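Quick one:
INPUT:
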């Protein structure tokens, strides 16, 4: 079984409070996801802020416009430091995503560590090499631009 990690860092021109308010609000997930993914939150009555144990369900179309149900749980939160989401239902055998933020000079460093395992063993490893790895990078590159549009370029 193949296991992979994507690690992405971004320096952001804002305060830790402003970034935390943005990333800890479930409604902002759609803002930082490419439109072609067809990302729709299907959970009803979501609060303004995430909390440990929170379940969020979505519909996404990551490949060929095929709608997929994805359910994640917010498993850990430390206010203004990090939160973790883990897939409960969805396309991966394993999905563990750490969102870590820390103050730096003139802004905030945001680090994402995504640990994942595609389904289907050997076939999933081939799919990761051919499609998944580059698709995840593309999604996180999109998010980098979306966050820069919201908070400005890091100076």
């Amino acid at each position: 079984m193949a296991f992979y990690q994507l690690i992405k860092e971004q320096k952001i021109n804002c305060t830790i409070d402003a970034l935390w308010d943005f990333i800890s609000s479930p409604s902002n997930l759609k803002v930082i996801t490419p439109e072609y993914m067809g990302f729709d939150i299907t959970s009803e009555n979501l609060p303004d802020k995430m909390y440990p144990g929170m379940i969020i369900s979505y519909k996404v179309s990551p490949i060929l416009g095929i709608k997929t149900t994805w359910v994640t749980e917010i498993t850990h939160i430390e206010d203004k430091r990090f939160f973790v989401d883990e897939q409960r239902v969805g396309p991966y055998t394993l999905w563990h995503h750490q969102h870590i933020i820390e103050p730096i000079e003139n802004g905030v460093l945001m680090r994402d560590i995504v640990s994942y395992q595609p389904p289907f063993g050997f076939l999933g490893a081939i799919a990761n090499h051919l499609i998944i790895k580059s698709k995840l990078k593309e999604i996180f590159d999109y998010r980098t631009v979306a966050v820069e549009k919201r908070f400005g370029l890091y100076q």
